[in-house]
Amino acid sequence: MSESILQRRVEVQGLATAILLPSVSVFGAQAEHRPDTVGPLTNVVGIGLFARAVLTLQRAGIRQLIVLAGAEEDQLKQALGNGPRVTIPVRWMPIREFPLDDSRTWEFLAAEVRGFALIASVNAVFSRGLVERLRHDLREGEAAVVAQTASRRSELVTSGGLRLKVQSDRLTSFAPAHFDDSAPCAAELVVLPAGFMSSSWHTPNDNSRLPIRRWLERAAVDGRVRVVAAEDKRGTWYQDVRTLSDVPLAEKKLFNSLKGETESFVDRHFNRKLSRWCTRLFLAAGFSPNAITIVAAFIGFVSAAGFGMGTYAAGVVAALLFQLAAVIDCCDGEVARLTFTESPFGAWLDLAMDNVVHMAIFAGIAAGIYSTQIGQPAAWRTLACGAVAVLGNGLSFLLVERAQKIKAAGGWRTSAHAAWSEFMLKNVASRDFSVSLVLFALFAKLEWFLWFTAAGSFIFAGVMLWVIRPSAVIATKI
Question: Rounded to whole angstroms, how far apart are CA atoms 189 and 110?
Fold first, then answer.
């Protein structure tokens, strides 16, 4: 059979089913009950580990979830019901009725799975990108084990933890946690072909609680177990959460993974570093992303009013307030991504309020400068410049909104148009000018800022119109 036919079969069957084990380790270790241990309901950035795992899998494209739950089943159901909406079907299978050491349980699961199953415990947080990579890199008849880098000492690896012996990207065997501090650790995230769970893979008189490790060891002999490294830089990260001391590490990992689609230089190196402190406060206070958007907009409007006063001190304070608004404006997206509450309306509201605030800022600066020039022959020029800046920003907003709709519909005429749009949105349509505004205010040159803004907004609008017009015309015809 040709490789292309095999690949098409994998794509049809795919990895659409996940099996969660809230009570036990994937490799058979029982959940520990020490004062410092955590459980599936332990909160990490406001969401329990179990609910976070379910929502991450849902966002990564998993379309069916099977939960082999113990005594905590009712609590887990309640946690899912109280959190963000779960849209994929969740099937609950009590362990007391479907014992994990019973081959019939796994044969039943094999019949429910088409192609591959992702099997995971919930004592960890992991990225959507890691699951997407596992789904993309499927190979027919092969399993996959996620490996963590050996950055922690052996004694900190969970009881019953495993080190991996790897050759190239293939698992050769498992080893105890104390085997070699430089060897990668097995994560609680495994991809198995459905055939591995069938009766032919079960060994009579095997008393192990979970047969997954045995299946992987058997497949490793034939070189059929790939090792997939979890990597922070590639967005495929994984973090164990076994004890209370692991919770801050997991939260740090989540915060470090935050990044907007159009991350600018100032956002990346300044605003994000400050916004994460504010985000923690908003999460603790229970603010929704849309509420944070309104808070940032309110501060922006106060800043605009300050510019309208026309004094030097008011201008400096207003510029600093606008910089604060830019920092808080990062928080709505961070809270949305951390709590799985992103929405098309929230994204539109954020974009719309940003532009309304910008227009208010330009109008406020123009009014403030005009108030100091009343009676002068050329005072009208300041108002005209402010009007041009407001009009240019409004036009830019409409064009950016149009570009995002074209991108969402996959309607770019050429890759060059898509690249230009991405460049403009990332490097020009950003909050970076908030820093320059502070400098212009400190040097009492707000009029210069207004002239630059008026010219820049129309240049930006002209470039965006040139970029999106061909694609917009095609989209209209279709």
Answer: 18
Question: pTM score, two decimals?
Answer: 0.82
Residue 44 CB-density burial (10 A; 0-12 exposed, 13-18 middle, 19+ buried): buried
> Please, what are the averages of pLDDT over each run of 10 residues along the chain (478 residues)?
41 80 82 66 93 96 94 92 89 92 89 92 94 93 88 45 87 79 88 85 63 91 94 90 91 84 67 88 94 97 96 96 94 93 91 93 96 86 94 88 76 69 62 86 95 90 79 50
Domains and CATH numbers, the chain: 3-245 (3.90.550.10), 258-477 (1.20.120.1760)
pLDDT at 62: 95
Q: What's the CA angle centered on 298, arms 296 and 303, to 5 degrees?
A: 95
**Separation between Cα atoms, residue 319 and residue 325, nearest integer Å:** 10
What is the four-CA torsion angle of 370, 374, 376, 381, rounded to 10 degrees?
Answer: 30
* CA torsion through residues 384, 385, 386, 387, sign: positive
State the pLDDT at residue 430: 61
Residue 120's nearest CA partner among 15, 233, 231, 14 is 15
Parallel, antiparallel, or unpaired: how do β-strands 143-148 and 116-121 relate?
unpaired
SS3 at position 42:
coil
pLDDT at 12: 40
**Separation of alpha carbons 252 and 37, rounded Å:** 19
- For the purposes of burial, counting CB atoms within 10 Å of the CB of 466, is it exposed (0-12), middle (13-18) or buried (19 or more)? exposed
- Rounded CA gap, 442 and 432, in Å? 17
The string of DSSP letters for 146-207 reads EEE-S-S-GGGSPTT-EEEEEETTEEEEEEETTS-TTSPEEEEEEEEEGGGGSGGGPPTT--
Q: Over the Cα atoms of the chain, what is R_g?
A: 27
End-to-end CA distance of the chain: 40
Instruction: Give the whole-angstrom CA distance, residue 252 versus residue 237.
Output: 12
